[in-house]
Design goal:
Length: about 400
Amino acid sequence: MDTSVRVLVVGASVAAGALIGQLRADGFAGRVLVVDQDPDAPYDRPPLSKEFLGGETPRPEAPWWDERCELIRGRATSLDVTSAAVKVDLADGPAGTIGADHIVLATGSAPIRLPDEPDGVAQLRTAADARRIRDFAAPGRRVLILGAGTIGTELASSLAGAGCDVAIVDQADRPLDRFLGGHLGDVAAEWIRAAGVELRLGCRVARISRAGERWTVSTSAGDLSGDLVVSAIGARPATGWLAGSGLDVTNGVRCDAHGAALDASGAIIGTVQAIGDVAAWCEPGTGPQRYEDWTTAQRQGRHVAKRLMGGTDPADFGLPYFWTHQFGRRIQVLGHPKRDGDLVQHTGNPARNAAYFTVRAGGADVACVAINSPREFAGAMRTSLRESG
């Protein structure tokens, strides 16, 4: 590539960082422009619900960001695939159109909001969101968290550690249900409750209301009151701005096996790629798959960068890797913990709250779950699970 080549990245996400870092490592000499509407400088998002919220670290700076990137603060509103251009509502001026030789969509996912959700309900998506919650946290304050997934339970862990009185509401029967594939939910509920967090499971939120500074969450199992409500019920691909672009955005941006975006007919749009949470890559033999994990975002970002630099190697469709750190436990999941699989425990150390499990389905280990067991997990990543997956 020569110095006249322009790569326009929409979204300053983890995947975007991997892309930009790999471009630099491979000697890219062109221009990299990043469009992002977050008023903060690019930063690393995963610590927001953990170390940053708990006050252990300052805002986590993005390691890939420096003056060689051109940051355009604004909100992307439309994509023209024919002219390879993105229309942007600029934060400090009128709307403008930015063209590029290659456009990489890395907008990630957007929080799901409840129907009729009132203003003032907090969420955790940005550094500003995390600061609002962290500034509120104080001993004795009552926080109601909607959602018992990874974000909701990490929030509960950080806020309980700050002395808040925390309650979690979820319509699922177990916490971390999707993360653990339906396994170990009762065990997770025990350690959450042992930390003093109230769990209201299997109940639906009917209404959220506010009177002065006090909130009420009405559920199918009764009312809860608190000083702050945080919604963490999930996220969906941030593709709303792509309506009318012609891209297939049925479940994220559908892509081929190298990250090139596809239109509704399945044709490749050669100038547009998608990576990270917003992308659904067509894996060999399985069709489009969308993952919301840090490792996949890194792999996809690096692979697209290499393709832009002329590389021809196949993509690495390794097993997805998820982790969470909460309530004194580091929980790591590799693979696909299928709900109809059999959970097999291999090791356990109650004194360290440690255990190591595999999930077997079809005669093979399809996933492993490690709780405070980094050595066993590292072995799974190196050997048998990767081979069987």
